[in-house]
Design goal:
single chain, 176 residues, mainly alpha, 0% strand
Length: 176
């Protein structure tokens, strides 16, 4: 009778061990799948941001090229009113902000808490810098001149009270 009870206990221990291992394995698979899904969502969000910016950059590059060609070909004829650059429209800006916030949650909220006097344009510039965009890409994405980007960057440095030896890009990257 003792041997039968001992076997029953051993079987229970083995059964509990097997169930425990299955639970741990299932949890590990779940966590791995969750991590993969999260990475895929991040990649998709980054692709959405890249596509939106690439479209805006391509459009503004074409506008610049058309303006340059028209100015060269009609230099001596009639005055020419240049086509304006296309800014991020409200819907595009909303999509961009949402995608950016999905990719870097809390960045804008933290930026607003730390620097409440930032404008919407300042926030956009910070987001583009955080995405490691070059000044030329920023200018084309926002539909502003390269000089305006440089001026905006200077004003951001002033708002952030950055010493001259601190790089604005590094400072913004550190906030991610």
């Amino acid at each position: 009778m003792l041997q039968a009870e001992l076997r029953t206990r051993q079987q229970r221990i083995i059964l509990i061990s097997v169930i425990g291992l299955l639970v741990v394995a299932g949890l590990a698979v779940f966590l791995i799948m969750r991590s993969r899904n999260h990475k895929q969502k991040q990649q998709l969000t980054q692709q959405n941001i890249d596509t939106l910016l690439a479209e805006r950059i391509a459009l503004n590059t074409k506008i610049e090229e058309l303006n340059r060609r028209h100015t060269v070909s009609n230099a001596e004829t009639k005055p020419f009113e240049a086509l304006p650059a296309i800014l991020l429209e409200k819907e595009d800006e909303k999509r961009f902000r949402k995608s950016f916030n999905d990719l870097h949650p809390g960045f804008i909220d933290n930026l607003r808490k730390t620097y409440p006097d930032l404008t919407s344009g300042n926030e956009l510039l910070c987001m583009l810098i955080a995405l490691r965009r070059r000044n030329e890409e920023i200018a084309l994405a926002l539909g502003i001149s390269r000089d305006s980007v440089a001026t905006s960057r200077y004003r951001l440095r002033t708002r952030f009270n950055l010493p001259k030896d601190v790089d604005l890009n590094d400072f913004i990257q550190s906030m991610l």
